[in-house]
Amino acid sequence: FKKPATFADCGDHELPFGWEKVRDVHGDVGVYYVNHHKKTTQIEDPRIQWKREQERMLREYLENA
After folding, report:
1. Closest Cα partner for 46 from 13, 5, 23, 1?
2. Apex CA 39: angle with CA 34 and CA 45, to 5°?
3. pTM
4. Which residues contact 17 (CB under 8 A, 6 or more apart)?
5. Strand ranges of the sheet holding 40-42, from the earlier edge strand across to the other edge
6. Which one of 12, 45, 49, 61 has the lowest number of neighbouring Cβ atoms within 10 Å?
7. Are 47 and 10 in contact (CB under 8 A)?
8. Do the domain assignments include residue 2?
9. What is the dihedral of CA 7, 50, 19, 40, to 10 degrees?
10. Separation between Cα atoms, residue 3 and residue 19, nearest integer Å
11. Domain boundaries, position 27
12. Transmembrane ranges (predicted)?
């Protein structure tokens, strides 16, 4: 099984290569996401960020069309 390279290539529940969903068993965070390429972590699901960005780009395109 080969992981998708980008968010654009992912299905609804997939994370692309280099991303990992982690459960924080010792803290209060619950779930967080690790971007191994940039060596960063974040609480917000990056798939939600990706969908928001796609919606923004579509709105911008439609406004200018």
Report:
1. 13
2. 30
3. 0.76
4. 3, 4, 5
5. 19-24, 30-35, 40-42
6. 12
7. yes
8. no
9. 140
10. 10
11. 7-64
12. none
